[in-house]
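One record is given unchanged without comment:
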Amino acid sequence: MALHLTDRNVAHDIAARIRKLIARQDHGDVTAAARRLERPIADVYLPERVISSGDEPAVIDFLATVIRTYEADVCWLITGTTARSSGERTLSIEDRVTIVELLDELSDRLIDDVRNERQANGNYHWRSDQSQELMTNDQLPMTHSQ
């Protein structure tokens, strides 16, 4: 992982921002936050433990869940400044790469959400002949049986 999240100071700073989100949106109720995030209470009570675990996929998954669930600014969660105010200071390469990794995870989740929603509504099909391109019913090729 580009950002040294295993550094306890970095993990502590990010955890403090997560606690601010919980305080603002869940009135500080860690149990409610755990339900909202669909995470064990221990992960929400001590997020620095998850963040500094060294398990990159788990860390990215946890942070992406926090960002998506609380609609948090990725830049703010990682650096403490918003994307707009970050122009005042240059983001480190580690910050930038971590932000890109989180945005990549979030975009994958959004795509999965759209696919699942469309599949549940019966509004799309996968093309098996090419790279799994999403096709709506209006775009499906006509077959002889239609």
User: Anything to note?
Assistant: The longest helix spans residues 93-121. Residues 128-133, 135-146 have pLDDT under 50 and may be disordered.
